[in-house]
Amino acid sequence: MARVTTNFRCTECSWQSIKWVGRCGECQQWGTVQDSAQPAARVSAVSVPEGRAARAITDIGAESVAHWPSGIAEFDRVLGGGVVPGAAILLSGEPGVGKSTLLLEVASRAAASGQRVLYVSAEESVSQVRLRAERTRALQPSLFLAAETDLATILGQIDQVQPQLVIVDSVQTVSSGLTDGLAGGPSQVREVASTLIRISKDRNLPVLLVGHVTKDGSIAGPRLLEHLVDVVLQFEGDRQTSLRFVRAHKNRFGPTDEVGCFEMTGDGIAEVADPSGLFLSRARTPTSGTCVTIAVEGRRALPVEVQALIVKTQAPQPRRVVNGVDSSRVAMLLAVLERRAGLPLSSFDVYVSTVGGIRVTEPGADLAIALAIASAYKDKAFPVTQAVIGEISLAGEIRPASQAKQRVTEARRLGFSTVIDSDAMHLREAIRLAFASSTAERVDIPDF
């Protein structure tokens, strides 16, 4: 008789324990450790059916993966050219960011091109989805709506409609009667996702799944969900602004460094083909405390204006307030400016922000942040036709940024005549050069 082993296993990461605990010791999830008592049996080998025997990789023909465009160029850019038949795509994002609006637009464009699309809403009724579709002008006769939360019923809808594209909003609200637990639990999400992905592969049917996120920004449910799907997209943006970005965290059919830019309007969501002017203040006269850099989002170079404000304070701990940039990066640059460039900033409140709600975390924007702070400190403005690119080391040296040629080309195309991107320069010399281009006299930056 087989020996019965009693242990407890995490349903999300398979971590094992000899006793029950409320929190997994590996993935730190609550309520996922369950009793997995079962006889320890051995797996026996079976004969391989004819036609499924392993073959040499050189004997297997390469089949090209065909993409069909969704009708939204920015969405196709992130996917690598369009939707691949049989692909499982997971789109995640914070509540209210516009996931349902984007996928409803994708469904409308696909239906307008002659595809039969099934949109399954597990969170809204069909009348609510119809109202949003009417507002965004997404009404198409080939777009079918269904409000279902049961997995078996959704499979029945797929058999009846025979669609060429399926959208499920969202995977955490669908449940299966064959699995215990509430909808959204690890076991339910695993069962629903694996079943839909199996249908997708068997019928060569692309499936788009909407995924909820937790308060820390990660996708809710088991980590296995991201491994099962072919593409993981992140839809992000500040709800206080209209700008939205779609990024690919995983893509088996295309690149993972592309970014799609969208804008939320009263009529729905609109793609932004050239977002170069969204992150500039368009000031006609030079203003102190501002500097323009060329940031790279994916493969796209974008001009970003960095603004800084310096205020004298008597507080023992000056304030450091940032928006759109990394706070630890700004703190490091303030230390470099004070130690290497001789700017006494320890008695000033420093405020740094970007224009347009974009977030820049790459080191290529270091020089723009430093020059914006120096401009605010000296109360002298740079010319509006000047852009700076470069990373600053702790020694005050300027290092070249990645994809420097592409950044300079984009700056020239947008009309920036002066581009400071030299890597053989110290921070003091860069500050002098930037100010000398706007005034006849050189600004005195003390040496040490």
- Helix proportion of residues, in percent? 25-40%
Shape estimate: globular
Number of domains: 3
Main sheet properties: 9 strands, mixed
**CATH fold-level name of the largest domain:** Rossmann fold
Q: What is the CATH class of the largest domain?
A: Alpha Beta
Question: Which stretches are low in confidence, meaning pLDDT under 50 for 5 or more residues running?
Answer: none
Please give the CATH architecture of the largest domain. 3-Layer(aba) Sandwich
Could you characterize the architecture of this molecule?
One of its GO terms (cellular component) is cytosol. Residues 64-213 form the RecA family profile domain. A motif (RadA KNRFG motif) lies at residues 250-254. With 448 residues, this protein is α/β, with parallel strands linked by helices. The chain has 3 domains: 1-38; 73-273, Rossmann fold, CATH 3.40.50.300; 277-436, Ribosomal Protein S5, domain 2 (2-Layer Sandwich), CATH 3.30.230.10. Helices cover 25% and strands 23% of the residues. It is built from 10 helices and 22 strands. The chain has a 9-stranded mixed β-sheet, with helices on both faces. Strands 17-18-16-15-19-22 form a 6-stranded mixed β-sheet. Strand 20 and strand 21 form a beta hairpin. Helix 7 packs across helix 8 (366-378) and helix 8 (366-378) packs across helix 10 (427-436). The longest helix is centred in the middle third of the chain and has 18 residues, at 186-203. The model has no long low-confidence stretch (mean pLDDT 87).
